[in-house]
Amino acid sequence: MSQFNSPSIFSVSRLNQAVRTLLEQDLGQIWVSGEISNLSQPSSGHWYFTLKDDNAQVRCAMFRNSNRRVTFRPQHGQQVLVRASVTLYEPRGDYQLIAESIQPAGEGLLQQKFAQLKQRLADEGLFDPALKKPLPAPATCVGIVTSATGAALQDILHILKRRDPALPVVIYPTAVQGADATGQIVRMIELANKRAECDVLIVGRGGGSLEDLWCFNEEAVARAIVASSIPVVSAVGHETDITIADFVADLRAPTPSAAAEVVSRNQQELVRQLTSQQQRLEMAMDYYIAQRQQHFSQLRHRLEQQHPQLRLARQQTRLLALRQRLSSALETRLKRGQLQQQRLNQRLQQQHPGMRIQRASATLQQANFRMTQAIRSQLGQTRERFGLAVTHLEAVSPLATLSRGYSVTVTGKGEVVKAVTQIQAGETLTTRLKDGVVQSQVTAISPVKKGRQRARKTPQD
Q: What pTM was computed for the model?
């Protein structure tokens, strides 16, 4: 902007150069949507066209290095989305767009949605490699979430039948295109996890346009894949097709056929490995047998140098010597035992048990007699003491007192009456006599004066 504020005079070339610099620096790369017209494709390979809408138009150029990456053939009247740099063609003073990429307008909007969702899920960490679950090795059952009538299913089944025909397969049919596809794919992934009948899932379909594959770019499908406890292999479209499902899946396969190869064992490779192992085993056995034969030859050579008959003769000689030593040792031991037996017999005769038993029996009889006498004497004394105790007891027994004309009176509470203060008029008393019990009711109480009571007690004392 400082160049326009300068008082100097611009030449046309300088003016166009300054304007080009401003356009390129300030705008940079932009996205422009519009309708193609005046499309020209000369032999140089460059494309020249006009991008217009209802009120304006702008010239565009797309060089061959860029248009080689375009996956469709632009046509007159087609609505497109162009990513381009704004510049100025200085010789004519016309500003124009230098296109870097071009795509149908509908796919362009989908690409923007794709980029936004991809960035948001990446920020949440759903693409983190730490979340990727390892695939089973080998798989025991494969689940396939795809269209039951699509070519992708047939390709997968053909590869599995060729590589691992014994591998069980469970098909979870779903739409893979259209408005209902997203919900059906999510339900099939959840159903596979609920039934838990397979240990790896292939989720995908065959090739198509971005709109055809869009259900695999939906957030609901991405989160269902992340939430799956079963490892998921994404197999959507061709190798160049990239979807959100590829980023969140535990493994991305470039095609459905490649996914089938990833989850299956190659029977031919297994046969080759078994053949190789058999060859190695045969070589090892040959080597082992050769070693054993060599060892056997060495033993045979040693055996020929030292014949067993010579060793047997030496062993027999040694056996005879040992037998003689054993006989001599037995005789010596026998004589020693006989002498010891004689000494023991002599000692036994000197202290014969029969004599000791007789002496002990006499002692026992004497002790028994003394014990019997002592028991009889003790029993007599005890009986005498018991008689005296019975006599004394009868003398002081309350029953004896009762037999002499006395009685015992108790209150209704069972207390023995000792004083008139214990009873009240109208109370029932129980009197124990010698030959029975009398119950009486108190009608009057007459306390005795202390002087008279003492006079009564004196003769008794």
A: 0.44
